[in-house]
Amino acid sequence: MAFRFLSAVCVNLRIEIKPVCDGIIDRLLDTILYIIDNDKSLTGQWICSVVLQSYGCSQPENKDWTITVDDGCSPKKLQMLSKSNTSKILHITDFHFDQHYSPGSNAECQYPICCSEDVGTPSDPLAEAGYWGDYRNCDTPRHTIVNALNHARENNKIDYVYFTGDVIDHRVWKTEKQNNINVMRQNYDIIDTAFPNIPVYPVLGNHEPHPINLYSPSSVDPKLSIQWVFDLIAKEWSRWLPEATKQTILKGGYYTVKVNEKFRIVALNSNVCYTFNLWLLYTYVDMYDQLQWLRDVLAEAETNGENVHILSHVPTGSVECYTTWAREYRKIINRYANSIKGIFNGHTHTNEFQLFYNLSNPSQAIAMAFNGGSVTSYNYLNSNYIIYETDVRTNTIINYEHYTYNLTEANLAGANVKPRWYQLYSFKDAYNLDEMNLDTVASLVERMAGNSSLAQLYYRNKYKNSDPFIEQGCDNECISDNLCEIVTSLYTDDTQCNVLESIMEYSYKQG
């Protein structure tokens, strides 16, 4: 009865067509019923405040929680750049490998994901899926992923690889546990083959579990547990990571590695904050004890004078990250900002950046997060990868370069011609910066608010110069949204957004 009711709601509200509704509900129903049966504190207000937090539902007071963080400010670190000694980090993310991708198949189907033989025949040649991928609702063929990684390796001297998650396709109504296992293994093998002698630091995406998005607490019915994901990656990632990382990987899919005496990488499972993770309704307090662990790791790093890079999948400033989790994460970043030299995310498929501001001095930028874009073209995007140049002494990001190719051009050339990769931009060159640091980037964002041409350049770079987004264009509301996303590290805090909107309003009046 519950299945029929939920399916009818899904179809009647036109959320999806019936086969998709049925497939998704079939996969989620056991979890939904378990939460209802076992959480007597479940209320409509609580559900709304998590799943629909963008609609302004207030969180019940008894659901609030905090992380223990030391008082005080992050001590200043007097570190001089080495100037000439640099390393290069490759950032790849969001493969969304589609093992069923079929060039020439229907790219304009009625399903959320097309470009496979099981979605019908193309109505005309313009509806045929391209060889290298497609701007429409399609994921990524294997040869496209291999091409991207090979190009990155062959054209750059790479010291480290950051992979920020999501290897499973968007066929969410058809996921199966064993298939996810197989695809994860295939993709980790692809990365390993491309970079056999280079350290790789991976994280999980929200698509890796079955059902999608559901990172369960450890205490639930074994039939609903996703412990198998952690067991799998503990084994698969052991080719890149030391034995000491297994304890926290098995606990919650996160870890830390001391790369050298003064450089530490922290890899998080930020998917637990994703509001589509229904288990937030059941276990909402710091799932897997991850944030308290993060605080403890950063405290030790501060004591030891270490520089830290943080990797995760879901960016915390998004409306899709549960605000209490994001608030506590921001509090930790604020306290240990001087040890944190970069934050690296995925998930959005767009190449953007985000600034964190001092909670006690809101005009001061204290940390910067970078989004790696995506290898997938889903949707309406070009494939890309990022190369960061870092100072070896301080591990500070001093510049980065974005590489991509035009998907229309690649598909017109066909299967026998490799895509023509090119550098879309270098951050310092594109935005005319002598140095790339927190002060110059914060100033740049304010200049974007008062300079439409600069804001349009950011739009082009964010959406990877893709034909559909260039054709669509970006009006004043679009510019405002893009810039506000840069300065928002907590969805409910509009402080910096309001500053930028004031600058934009003044600029428009000046004409």
From TrEMBL:
<feature type="disulfide bond">
    <location>
        <begin position="273"/>
        <end position="321"/>
    </location>
</feature>
<dbReference type="GO" id="GO:0046872">
    <property type="term" value="F:metal ion binding"/>
</dbReference>
<dbReference type="GO" id="GO:0006685">
    <property type="term" value="P:sphingomyelin catabolic process"/>
</dbReference>
<feature type="binding site">
    <location>
        <position position="94"/>
    </location>
    <ligand>
        <name>Zn(2+) 1</name>
    </ligand>
</feature>
<keyword id="KW-1015">Disulfide bond</keyword>
<keyword id="KW-0325">Glycoprotein</keyword>
<feature type="disulfide bond">
    <location>
        <begin position="115"/>
        <end position="138"/>
    </location>
</feature>
<feature type="disulfide bond">
    <location>
        <begin position="474"/>
        <end position="478"/>
    </location>
</feature>
<feature type="binding site">
    <location>
        <position position="206"/>
    </location>
    <ligand>
        <name>Zn(2+) 2</name>
    </ligand>
</feature>
<dbReference type="InterPro" id="IPR008139">
    <property type="entry name" value="SaposinB_dom"/>
</dbReference>
<feature type="disulfide bond">
    <location>
        <begin position="109"/>
        <end position="114"/>
    </location>
</feature>
<dbReference type="GO" id="GO:0016020">
    <property type="term" value="C:membrane"/>
</dbReference>
<feature type="binding site">
    <location>
        <position position="96"/>
    </location>
    <ligand>
        <name>Zn(2+) 1</name>
    </ligand>
</feature>
<dbReference type="GO" id="GO:0005764">
    <property type="term" value="C:lysosome"/>
</dbReference>
<keyword id="KW-0862">Zinc</keyword>
<feature type="binding site">
    <location>
        <position position="347"/>
    </location>
    <ligand>
        <name>Zn(2+) 2</name>
    </ligand>
</feature>
<keyword id="KW-0479">Metal-binding</keyword>
<dbReference type="GO" id="GO:0046513">
    <property type="term" value="P:ceramide biosynthetic process"/>
</dbReference>
<feature type="disulfide bond">
    <location>
        <begin position="10"/>
        <end position="21"/>
    </location>
</feature>
<dbReference type="InterPro" id="IPR041805">
    <property type="entry name" value="ASMase/PPN1_MPP"/>
</dbReference>
<comment type="similarity">
    <text>Belongs to the acid sphingomyelinase family.</text>
</comment>
<feature type="binding site">
    <location>
        <position position="166"/>
    </location>
    <ligand>
        <name>Zn(2+) 1</name>
    </ligand>
</feature>
<dbReference type="InterPro" id="IPR004843">
    <property type="entry name" value="Calcineurin-like_PHP"/>
</dbReference>
<dbReference type="GO" id="GO:0005615">
    <property type="term" value="C:extracellular space"/>
</dbReference>
<feature type="binding site">
    <location>
        <position position="166"/>
    </location>
    <ligand>
        <name>Zn(2+) 2</name>
    </ligand>
</feature>
<protein>
    <submittedName>
        <fullName>Sphingomyelin phosphodiesterase-like</fullName>
    </submittedName>
</protein>
<feature type="binding site">
    <location>
        <position position="313"/>
    </location>
    <ligand>
        <name>Zn(2+) 2</name>
    </ligand>
</feature>
<dbReference type="InterPro" id="IPR011160">
    <property type="entry name" value="Sphingomy_PDE"/>
</dbReference>
<dbReference type="Pfam" id="PF00149">
    <property type="entry name" value="Metallophos"/>
</dbReference>
<keyword id="KW-0378">Hydrolase</keyword>
<dbReference type="InterPro" id="IPR029052">
    <property type="entry name" value="Metallo-depent_PP-like"/>
</dbReference>
<feature type="binding site">
    <location>
        <position position="349"/>
    </location>
    <ligand>
        <name>Zn(2+) 1</name>
    </ligand>
</feature>
<feature type="domain" description="Saposin B-type">
    <location>
        <begin position="1"/>
        <end position="61"/>
    </location>
</feature>
<dbReference type="GO" id="GO:0061750">
    <property type="term" value="F:acid sphingomyelin phosphodiesterase activity"/>
</dbReference>
